[in-house]
Amino acid sequence: MNSSARPTAPSRPPHPAIDFYGGQLCTSEAEVKAHPDRVAAFRAASVKRLAYALAHKQATVDLILRSYSAKKSLEALLFEAEQTEMLVGQDPDRIGEQDPARWRS
Length: 105
Known about the structure:
With 105 residues, the protein is mainly α. It is built from five helices and two strands. A two-stranded antiparallel ribbon has the order 1-2.
């Protein structure tokens, strides 16, 4: 949810066999078996992207507003960045893990 209580859309991956939803990376077993290098590369790029975005929230928001969309305000995007950091935690390398303790926190 964003600061105006409207749901936000997850980012779209470049390939339909990989799905990013709510901080989780999901794909099929068939995709992992058929294209393990692609799956590993997508995961690594996603972790790197998230780590950068969390470490550089203002720059990321500025880029979104300048190059992609001004549908949301600076304040709304910064709020979403803070909420994302709370959900992901301080360890973006854990993206994609299924840890019951993480879901309870």
